[in-house]
Amino acid sequence: MKINISDAPQGLGEAAGSLTADLIRTTIAQRGRANIILATGTSQFETLKQLVAASDIDWSKVVMFHLDEYLDLPITHPASFRKYLRERFLEQVPPLKEVYLINGEADATAECVRLGELIEQHPIDVALVGIGENGHLAFNDPPADFNTEQPYIVVDLDEPCRRQQLGEGWFASLDDVPTQAISMSIRQIMKSKHIICSVPDARKAVAVQNCLEQPVSNLHPASILRTHPNCSLFLDQASASLLSDIVTAEAE
User: Fold this and answer.
1) 45-53 vs 9-31: helix axis angle to the nearest 10?
2) I want to staple 137 with a disulfide (CB 3.0 to 4.6 A). Which of 13, 146, 221, 228 is the partner?
3) Nearest C-alpha neighbor of 232 from the set 192, 204, 201, 205
4) CATH code of domain 2-31+53-134+148-198+214-235
């Protein structure tokens, strides 16, 4: 894992978004197309902003998937990740070749099957991810399932995860936060050729510390990223504030 520590979220996003754009351009040049995964949430604001502004990407050769979506949440709800991606990405770039959004309002089992069949036909070149306050990767809360081969699964959201969504301002009360979601599985995420992980903010500092300094474990789901051959982790000073001198010395 390569670790990059920026002074502030804006610099983090510029670095992560720039690398993502370079990888997409290179993949298109080599293969004529690129398959990507986008993440959502406040951690991705600056990264997606940089990616949208990137020049010379032929988006007509890009196929997009995303990580997760709440069950039974209308696409019109402010917290809908489909709404997020439409407003912050899809409406900001030229039309993509294909876009496969998770429909959390459909039958969940059938939707997981549909998406699983699609993503198996589109091996992922570049995946954007984040780390939750509880260490989750996508909506795989601890203890995460490290073993399932299903590309998409229905998951229960634990209280720390739901409180994070409340704290970020997506919902008016904890009772409003859904208790289940469709999430890309850990193994599916790890199949990506390149993973770009953006994690700003001091409230993520404990999760970052656990994921980098504790043993790789499903109790710290994002710790699995340390085993990926091409993962780049982008932090800011706040999210990196609890890391040991040894870890920070290894950062770029």
Assistant:
1) 50
2) 221
3) 192
4) 3.40.50.1360
